[in-house]
Amino acid sequence: MSKMAGTTTKRPRLPIVDMARGVAIVAMVIYHLFWDLSFYRFIAVDVGYDPGWVLFARSILFSFMVLVGVGLVLGHGDGIRWRRFWRRWLFVAGGALLITLGTFLTFPDSFVYFGVLHAIALFSLLGLPFLFTPLWLNGLVAAAILALPLVFSDPLYNAKLFSWIGFWVVPPPTNDLVPVFPWFGVTLLGIIAARLIRGTAVETRLATIQPQNAPARILAWMGRWSLVIYLVHQPLLLGIIAPLGMAMGTQEASREIEFLNSCQATCEQAGTTAALCAIYCQCGLEGIKRDDLWEPIFGGLVSAADQARLDANNRQCSVLIYPELDGQSPAPPR
Fold it and tell me: What are phi and psi of 47, to 5 degrees?
């Protein structure tokens, strides 16, 4: 553990790792581009829940977490360079704080409190001892961290206060969450892989791989500046897509159609005629717009006050098609 004290041997940078980071950040930008387009209803698919897009997002996250481990070994595997470590760590932690503040202002009901950068900051600290511990121990710890969420869960971890650990039954509402279990296990896999090739002929061969063309050089550059790109790409995308969506009314129009279709189908299944259901659903739509309830409904974050307004609107709309219900508390035909 003496290497924790700061004895260092600087090794040459591996451009292939920079290129891998560049590929990961390009994939992240693509994912967020289509997430934004989905959120503002420019495209029909729900990127946040579509299985293909979810798998794509998980593969990107896996890549980032592996590269965190690889980067720790490449930067500090021969001894921790504390000044460099803390400088980079403060940049990552500061970026994580900015993301929390920014998402709290834009998405207060689902702000990011432990996303990718938060995880990178914590995992970078947790990973330091494993740069020097026996590889068999690293493997056991990684296996345990990866496996535990498959066999254990508890409602206690549904709360935001504990959800960053993992083990939830139902995840809390947030736009990004990267818990310790299982994702720190993935970072340990990166540490193990990098340590296995450290100082071998494999590392020597990898060091000879240089970006030979413009796309490769661009990817390597993006990899070196991946943290900056990560911080600025989503505000830039939203700065373009959000005004377009509001100007074109794509999100509101899509939500209205989706609501009316769902309401009509549910209402008719309850036995109400199509004509009366159309009146009822249009009334409900007007109430939602009047009370500004789109975000709670579509975000699944209906508060007690929101629910009270919805109930009052449902009663009003039910009386509109069934006047005899006036003064009662009927179950609305939804």
Answer: -60, -30
